[in-house]
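quick one before i forget lol
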Amino acid sequence: MKRIHCQQLLPIGINEAWDFFSSPQNLNLITPKDMVFEIKNSLPEKMYKGLIITYKVRPFLNIPLNWVTEITQVEDQRFFIDEQRIGPYRLWHHEHHFEQTANGVLVTDLLYYSIGKSFLGWLAGVLFVHKKVRNIFKYREQKLNEIFSQ
């Protein structure tokens, strides 16, 4: 299992941070364009525990994959967790944490994921999956800096 831990300080208040991150529609804004990320179901304005989100993504060679996640936990203005229910990963558990500081909001992402233990899974991980996941978080950091530095 892989673990990714990222932190980013945004120069905003907790209300603005929570409003942005708890809106499922904003996920598309911070996802790399080359993933051709499409939300397939209608979504509420704000997420809630039990929310199912269905996507079509094209993370590699423009091959379409279905991905279904569930918001499994939400604590207002503190954190939420999404977990894959159907998709390319054997395990996907993504925690999003928010903490007000004197200089803004510290956003912490903690991701645990696994692509399985088969030889093909291992090979895919080495060749492109692990790099792709890291690049998603790099893109997200850059995009959030653009959005909130204005």
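fyi Strands lie at 2-10, 38-39, 52-57, 65-75, 79-86, 91-101, 104-114.
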